[in-house]
Write a structure and sequence with these properties.
This protein has helices at 38-48, 63-73, 120-125, 137-150, 166-169, 179-189, 195-202, 239-252, 257-272, 284-293; strands spanning 2-5, 9-15, 30-36, 53-59, 77-83, 89-95, 101-106, 128-131, 153-157, 174-177, 205-209, 215-219, 222-226. It is of the alpha/beta class. It has a single domain (2-17, 31-293), classed as UDP-N-acetylmuramoyl-L-alanine:D-glutamate ligase (3-Layer(aba) Sandwich), CATH 3.40.1190. The mean pLDDT is 95.
């Protein structure tokens, strides 16, 4: 079982020919409203790939709340999602004609999510605890320590890049970063921004996603690199979250890291083929079919 402590947002997605520059106003081709948030996206990806997922987070008592939780509630246990007075988290996402994105997030209710909702019984039953950096940092830090004390596997997607103490990061079993986050980590701790450089410096597992070049990782002393699948990219918004969620689902099933990465890049590639955040995340059957066709 995977416990995800993370964010739930509503995404306002603007499709544009090009990204606006400072001071510039552009007319969008269209606007979509859908559920998002790194935590919710990753939990949904894991659940759609067959994992049992319990989600812990917070939403507001506003009209956006039902949008934020609706998809996740169909595939995961959301009984530990709190209703709070703060507004539901919201993100504005700009997507250009090449499928590239820029994202700004208002955390809102996500900052009120309590790691205490991951009670000792739930932690005992979990195989993996999956976290990101869109909730209160102090709550995430406390949960990392509890996961280590409980002897469970912790996966931290350090997104958005947030400076944490060296000793705390070293408690994580696997830290997942993209290129920008890897550069930030390397700058904070004085090492090379590669998976090998960061893993050696922090003495823990590190996985670095490389976009169209796939992903690389160092885990338990082993270096792994897998290529991406070649697809006609339409929208990359949920690709990274899809990768993380499917990776966690595979590890939860007892797969090796290399096997998990190979499946995760395929699922992320499928997500790039279609527009949307959660709507782009494939099911287990879709990923199996795509894998068989390669």
């Amino acid at each position: 079982m995977i416990v995800t402590f993370g964010s739930l947002n509503v995404d306002l997605v603007f499709s544009l020919e090009a990204m606006p520059q400072p001071g510039q106003t552009l007319l969008a081709k269209c606007l979509r409203t859908e559920a998002g948030g790194k935590g919710a996206n990753q939990a949904l990806a894991a659940a759609r790939d067959g994992a049992e997922v319990v989600f812990v987070g917070a939403i507001g008592r506003d009209p956006l709340a039902e949008i934020a939780i609706a998809n996740l509630a169909t595939v995961a246990d959301v009984k530990r999602v709190s209703r709070v007075s703060e507004p539901t988290g919201c993100a504005s996402i700009f997507i250009d004609a090449q499928g590239r994105n820029l994202i700004a997030v208002a955390a809102g209710a996500n900052l009120a999510a309590s790691a205490g909702s991951v009670d000792d019984d739930l932690l005992h039953r979990a195989n993996i605890v999956l976290m990101q950096m869109e909730n209160n940092i102090g709550e995430t830090e406390r949960l990392i320590r509890r996961v280590r004390d409980a002897g469970k596997m912790s996966i931290l997607n350090l997104a958005p890049a947030t400076e944490l103490e060296f000793d705390l990061l070293s408690l994580c079993d696997l830290i997942i970063v993209n290129d920008d986050e890897a550069v930030a980590l390397a700058g904070w701790f004085g090492c090379e921004p590669s998976a090998e450089g960061i893993a050696h410096r922090l003495n823990t597992g590190v996985l670095r996603t490389l976009g169209e070049d796939g992903a690389e990782a160092v885990f338990k002393g082993e270096f792994v690199r897998v290529p991406a699948v070649k697809v006609d990219v339409k929208d990359t918004t949920a690709a990274g979250d899809c990768f993380v969620g499917v990776l966690a689902a595979c590890l939860d099933r007892g797969r090796t890291l290399k096997e998990a990465m190979q499946r995760a890049v395929i699922a992320a590639g499928i997500a790039c083929l279609r527009a949307g955040s959660q709507s782009s995340i494939p099911t287990r059957t879709e990923t199996d079919s795509f894998t068989s066709s390669q």
